[in-house]
Amino acid sequence: MMGTTLLSFFTVLVSLSCLYSPTSSSSTDSFVFGGCTQQKYVPDSPYESNLNSLLTSLVNSATYSSYNNYTIMGSSPQDVIYGLYQCRGDLAMPDCATCVARAVSQVGHLCSYTSGGALQLEGCYIKYDNTSFLGVEDKTVVLKKCGPSIGYDADGMGRRDSVLAALVGSSGPYRVGGSGEVQGLAQCVGDLSLSECQDCVSEAIGRVKSECGGAVYGDMFLAKCYARYSTGGSNFYSKGHHDKSTNDSEKTFAVIIGLLAGVALLIVFLTFIRKVFGGNGK
Q1: Are 11 and 104 in contact (CB under 8 A)?
Q2: 98: Cβ–Cβ under 8 A, 6 or more apart, which residues?
Q3: Which of 74, 86, 106, 127 has a CA 20 to 30 Å removed from the CA of 98?
Q4: How far is CA 181 from CA 205, 218, 229, 234, 241, in A?
Q5: Residue 13: its pLDDT value, please?
Q6: CATH number for 195
Q7: What domain range includes position 268?
């Protein structure tokens, strides 16, 4: 019953996100990859309640922050759950909130009753598990995608290598660069330190260069960072520029997201109270 209630909440949340987002979010909401753990949890268990609380917190936080992580404690160690989300660094907050809400909705279908899950959309990433992964550097290759080869083009490959080298030489968790039609992008998950982020980005860029060779584009997603490039002039990121006329829409959107998230937290709380008093009455 609780899972159905929260699923209905997220369905409504996504519908309203479509109505109030001031820009088209089809590109940021495109599916990149997803995966689930093999371990399952019992329906209507304390773990499911904690998972619902975690997912609600992710959606609520995304209305005002591009990254956050949470640890939901339980009455026993097996009920503890860890989770985070990370929006692409150029997204405006309404677009970030929309993306995270849709990621939460999709991971619920993809990873039904599994203890852990991860989902990457073009504009955001979410992950949760019952084993802590927060603050742990992980350079495991999750997804490699290379475009068709254009053969050896010294000028094109030279510009690509220069753009990627500039990303390595940059600082911060979100890095973009370009030269003509060549575009580059790299980002770390926010729980990494600066040195861990640098190490992860360097690994991702080294891999995408060596494994995609002369491809027109390349994507290398590691567990805690990614690097991407395109030589065809087609941007895989689109920085949102919202003028003053959209301010009211953005504020309305943020208020609605916050109110809906508050309703979900209230549902979780009331369900917990009902179980406690129901148990005492037996």
Answers
A1: no
A2: 17, 18, 21, 25, 28, 29
A3: 74
A4: 18, 14, 10, 8, 21
A5: 39
A6: 3.30.430.20
A7: 2-134+248-280
Q: What is the largest CA-CA distance in the chain?
A: 77
The string of DSSP codes covering 59-122 is: HHHTTT-SEEEEEE--SSGGG-EEEEEEE-TT--HHHHHHHHHHHHHHHHHHTTTBS-EEEEES
Which tops the pLDDT comparison, 254 or 133? 133
60 shares its domain with 163: no
Tokens representing residue 197 in the block? 């982020």
Q: How far apart are CA 158 and CA 140, in angstroms?
A: 27
Decide: residue 67, CB within 10 A, 0-12 exposed, 13-18 middle, 19+ buried: buried
Is the distance from CB of 57 to CB of 75 less than 8 angstroms? no
How many DSSP H helices and E strands does the chain contain? 6, 10
Same structural domain, 128 and 13: yes
Q: Is 215 helix (H, G, I), strand (E, B) or coil?
A: strand
pLDDT digits (tens, 9 = 90+) for 39-95: 999 999 999 999 999 999 999 999 999 999 999 998 899 999 999 999 999 999 999
CA 245 to chain centre: 28
- Are 128 and 21 contained in the same domain? yes
What's the one-letter identity of residue 96?
A: C
pTM of the model: 0.75
Looking at the domain assignment, is residue 239 inside a domain? no
In whole angstroms, give the CA distance from residue 121 to residue 87: 9
Q: Which residue has the tokens 């495109």?
A: 30
Mean residue pLDDT of the chain comes to 82
Q: What is the pLDDT of residues 143-199, one digit of tens each?
A: 999 999 876 577 878 899 999 999 999 999 999 999 888 999 999 999 999 999 999
How far apart (Å, rounded) are the C-alpha atoms in residues 10 and 83?
Answer: 17
The tokens describing 132, both together, are 């802590």
